[in-house]
Design brief:
This protein has 370 residues and is an alpha/beta fold. The protein folds into two domains: 221 residues, Rossmann fold, CATH 3.40.50.720; 136 residues, Dihydrodipicolinate Reductase, domain 2 (2-Layer Sandwich), CATH 3.30.360. Helices cover 31% and strands 19% of the residues. It contains 13 helices and 13 strands. The strands form two sheets. It has an eight-stranded mixed beta sheet, sandwiched between helices. The chain has a five-stranded mixed beta sheet with strand order 9-10-8-11-12, covered by helices on one side. A hairpin with a 5-residue loop joins strand 11 and strand 12. Helix 1 crosses helix 13. The radius of gyration is 20 Å and the shape is globular. The two termini are 27 Å apart.
């Protein structure tokens, strides 16, 4: 496979780890990265180690109300899913959490400060084969709107995300015709769940001619990585029955901490609105209503609180009912199970794009069809 030059939008936990993992993968060169305050572009390849050191502790979790412009002007979506405030200041020095205009990517010797990070990556996209959108989707149309900006700029290549919300898939499918016309291959839901586990379910389903149900159950331990994954935790809290995406977006860090404390640091989720359901349906595996997703998040320990498992129950061609089970080893971290697959799907998307296949693809679309 020819070399793939890629960019990362967002340098929080997912973005930083993607850059780190890319060092261990063949034929991948990161040439651009940004967060809310800075953008780094080097067409010959970024110095990943230096950039990671600069973005250590770069947390994108403050509530929207903490960062919006006082004037109420519409500003560019930030590379953390919020909005960029031109007058932001108040940098916290040397703590785990960095904020302010000189934190994160802007602190790298390879980078420039910016108030328009996404726009800057769009402008440099002629040098980019694929773009990983590692941004919290706190507004349902945020990632689709980011995709619109690349399409409007004439970008031809791969866009890829690790989004978790079922309803966003329809928004992307509505853009499929435009993507096809523009030459964009969009791979949606390409992390762990949805993503890796969606694909595992699609493979497990090959044994059957009819699927009764798909159960995805995940376990994540985040003690050592919690500070670098506050955005992810915030998104997960939006899946609790007493909260929604608007609540999670507006909550302060203190409010998020209070929810975690109310659950003694271990939160169980059931019937989550994860995109695995619609992604399996659009791949022809089963109806969305036959898919359930849940799991346990533990921010008090690095050990997984439960084994991540996919169970697919169905009927075989000879009338037998069975359940195929797929388990992730407890030693594999969330980072390994999100970022490794994301880069694998990125490569698969580039192959499709170079073969002239454009539009919107889910993770199960890149596997044997049911």
């Amino acid at each position: 496979m020819h070399e793939v030059n890629f960019a990362v939008l967002g340098c929080g936990g997912i973005g930083r780890r993607t850059l780190d993992v890319s060092k261990e993968k063949d034929n991948l060169t990161p040439v651009a990265a940004c967060d809310r305050n800075g953008v780094a572009v080097d067409r010959d390849g970024l110095d990943v180690d230096e950039l990671l050191a600069a973005t250590e502790g770069n947390i994108a979790s403050e509530s929207r109300s903490d960062s919006d412009r006082a004037s109420g002007e519409r500003s560019e979506p930030r590379a953390d899913g919020g909005t960029a405030a031109a007058g932001d200041a108040g940098t916290e020095s040397s703590g785990v959490k960095q904020t302010g205009e000189n934190a994160g990517v802007a602190a790298s010797v390879q980078a420039d400060p910016t108030e328009t990070p996404i726009g800057d990556i769009v402008e440099a996209s002629d040098a980019v084969d694929a773009v990983l959108i590692a941004l919290p989707n706190f507004e349902h149309d945020f990632i689709p709107r980011v995709a619109d900006r690349f399409a409007e700029a004439g970008y031809e290549g791969v866009l890829l995300d690790v989004l978790k919300r079922s309803r966003v898939i329809d928004m992307l499918d509505e853009r499929a015709g435009e993507f096809e016309q523009q030459g964009i291959t969009f791979v949606c839901g390409a992390g762990a769940t949805p993503g890796f586990l969606t694909s595992a379910a699609a493979i497990a389903a090959q044994s059957f001619v009819e699927i009764q149900d798909v159960e995805i159950w995940w376990g994540v331990g985040l003690k050592s990585g919690y500070e670098d994954n506050r955005g992810t935790v915030r998104e997960d809290i939006a899946h609790l029955p007493e909260y929604d995406i608007d609540d999670a977006r507006e909550m302060s860090d203190e409010a998020i901490e209070a929810v975690i404390d109310d659950h003694d640091g271990v939160i169980e989720f059931e019937d989550m609105e994860h995109a695995d359901d619609v992604l399996l349906e659009r791949a022809g595996v089963c109806d969305a209503e036959d898919v359930t997703v849940g799991g346990v998040l533990d921010v008090t320990s690095d050990e997984k609180p439960t084994t991540t498992t996919v169970r697919v129950t169905g009927t075989t061609f000879d009338g037998e009912t069975g359940t195929n089970t797929f388990e992730l080893d407890d030693a594999t971290s969330m980072a390994a199970n999100v970022n490794g697959p994301a880069l694998g799907y990125l490569k698969a998307g580039v192959r499709r794009n170079r073969a002239g296949e454009y539009g919107v693809f889910g993770p199960a679309d890149l596997l044997p069809r049911f």
